[in-house]
Amino acid sequence: MQLDRGLREHVQVDGFSWWRALTAPYDVFHVHWPEILLQGRTPARALARRALFSLLLTRLRLRSTAVVRTLHNLRSHEMQSPRDRRLMELFDRRTTVWIRLNSFTPVPAGALERTIAHGDYRDWFAQYPSPPTVPGRVLYFGLIRPYKGIDTLISAFSTETDAAASAATLRIVGAPQTPQLAHNLESLAAADSRITFSFGYASDAALSREIGEAELVVLPYQEMHNSGAAILALSLCRPVLVPQNSVTDALASEAGGDWVSTYPGALSAQNLKNAVAAARRRHDTERPDLSARAWPAGLAAHLEAYECAVRAARSR
User: What SUPFAM superfamilies does the annotation carry (predicted)?
Assistant: First the structure.
């Protein structure tokens, strides 16, 4: 939303619809998760989506339209059939410029690429008041999917039973991918009354309140390469605990201080305990260094990427 709003001050931005994609005039087709375009709630709808996607590929080729793709993950977390993978391979070949959010993301050999850091959320959430922190509150927020590792978080939290942990609470906020996944998590947490859930879409106001009340935000993904949730938590001056890898080590160095704690391997109760202690050591007057994620620079970089993509597409 912030990218959309910022770009509209400089270029015409049209939201996606199949009608626009197949018939409207545009210079750049910018997509973040193209695999979503292939998904359908029923086999018939999925088949129709594949047909529309094939038409889109033809349209992009015939009109030499520039295609810009932002890479969020190392691989798609959605199940894909062989036919879907083939369509995605064809789309990759049509991509003119690849935008990656960090320097660790691989791109196809010889491809045009730009590295543009994920922007912060400070201005977007500035309208909401910051609530008092709830001592001992640990929070997970975001989409609830199997690869997010929320079951591991519940198990690690429930394992810690010392005096400090008895006053702690775990809050899980977000929309489950399936009702069965929500049921499984509730069953796993049933014996621990300190764990509560808020399933479903959270408004910006509700999300601001939930994050503001947390002492620590935990994002225990099985695979973490980029995380808008981590940037949002840091934007609201809440420390985060994330898996350790090259990307999160770089984020810890960027944010500074004790704002980003990392853990190797699987999340444990001791990891949680250490991260809460680190969060309490920070000073209230400090805030994470997110200066490299200011939106004016990010918007300028996107506009330059579009210009580059148009030139390259027209020269083919």
Answer: UDP-Glycosyltransferase/glycogen phosphorylase (SSF53756)
